[in-house]
Amino acid sequence: MFCPECKAEYVEGIKVCADCDVPLVDKLPEEKELPPKPPYKQLKAFFTSAEIAIIKSILDDAKIDYYFRGERFQTMHVPLVDPAILMIRGDQFEAAKKLLEELE
User: Fold this and answer.
1) 84-89 and 66-69 strand pairing
2) Is 0.70 topped by the overall pTM?
3) Which H or E run includes 54?
4) How would you write the pLDDT of the chain (104 residues) with one tens digit per residue?
5) In sequence order, what are the beta bridge partners of 73?
6) CA atoms within 13 Å, Cβ hemisphere of 35
7) At what angle do helices 49-61 and 93-103 cross, to 10 degrees?
8) How far apart are CA 97 and CA 104, in angstroms?
9) In contact, 70 and 82? CB cutoff 8 Å
10) Other C-beta atoms within 10 Å of 54: how many?
11) What is the CB neighbour count within 10 angstroms for residue 57?
């Protein structure tokens, strides 16, 4: 017997998961393999936290998947020693590029 929520295994005779409080099942469904995530591509480097905050706001609003590689700073408005590199999900790269071109 298995809990469909937490996947805990129980001995025969137990009918409800002690942790999740849901009915147990005889067999867990097979887990589907998730498709691989598309690769991310480098778009641009930024040196200030103000620039990064603006870019995050724009990309979040457009629901574009991104991250900043090397985003290391402790105080606002202090230039970064090394730039923060904006990485955009490959299939959204052109849309992000166009958005940021409009900003300039």
Assistant:
1) antiparallel
2) no
3) helix 49-61
4) 999 989 899 998 999 999 999 999 998 888 788 777 789 999 999 888 888 999 999 999 999 999 998 876 544 455 546 788 999 999 999 999 999 998 77
5) none
6) 2
7) 120
8) 11
9) yes
10) 14
11) 10
69 forms beta bridges with 85
Tokens 């990485």 -> residue: 87
Cα gap 91→39, rounded to integer Å: 8
Where do we find the tokens 């940021």? Answer: 100
As a whole number of angstroms, the distance between CA 71 and CA 50 comes to 12
Spatial distance between the Cα atoms of 97 and 3, rounded to a whole number of angstroms: 46
- What domains, with CATH codes, occur in the chain? 1-32 (no CATH), 40-103 (3.30.70.790)
The single-letter code of the amino acid at 11 is V
Beta-carbon count within 10 A of 17 CB: 20
* Radius of gyration for the alpha carbons in the chain, expressed in angstroms and rounded: 23
